Amino acid sequence: MTNSNLTHTAAIILAAGRGSRMKAKSKNKVAFKINGRSMVGYTVDHLLEAGIKDITAVVGFQADSVRSALKDQVAYVIQEEQLGTGDAIKTAVSSIGSNIETVLTVYGDDSAFYPASLFQEMVAKKETEHCDLLFLTIHKEDPTGLGRIVRDATGKISRIVEEKNATEEERQIKEINTGFYCFDKEFLVDHIGDIQKNPLSGEYYLTDMVEIALKNGKKVEAFLVEDDSIWHGVNNRLDLAKAQKKIKS
Question: Model-level pTM?
Answer without folding.
Answer: 0.95
